[in-house]
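Form 7-S
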Amino acid sequence: VLAVAPRVWRIANAHEELPVELPEFAPLSQRTLVYDVFGGVIAVFERENSQPVSLGEVPPDVLQAILAVEDNEFFLHKGVNVRSLVRATLSNFASDAPRQGASTITQQVVKNELLAGLERDGRYKLLQVHYALMLEKKLTKEQILERYLNTIFFGNNAYGLQAAAEVYFGKSVGELDMVQGAFLAGVRLLHAAVEEV
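Output:
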């Protein structure tokens, strides 16, 4: 009785607790450029290669390639794709095969921005779902997608689509064509599979 009493008291008074607030996103990493007296760049310093771009700078074909690989129903769900989540959960419990992911883009933003460093267990997945639903109420789909495209890892120290375009093709994201977008989507899929393991 003594051990259960505090829990019962908390449940009875849960209505008085403050709601959970999502923290603000940390600022994205920025490059530091060093120029000579003539204005030429002589050095670039960066902790991680991250070069933020707006969603409007991404060509539609490239955006469609990323969405097709990562979350083809992104604009249809409210942060969580329940069908994919149930399928992956059942599959992961039923076999010893590699784990299937079911994270939407919104859930991946939550994972990278708010839950980094937490142990991946049942509580983690519940928090991820809860925060994804909260994030969808706080931000627009476009804001979530832009944050995602500026923070996802493409390998070779490239965080975000602009950094990936520079590393793999030596051009800005606005210059990418459909084939290059599909290549980057494939690279992202490969790195996402490694992250799930």
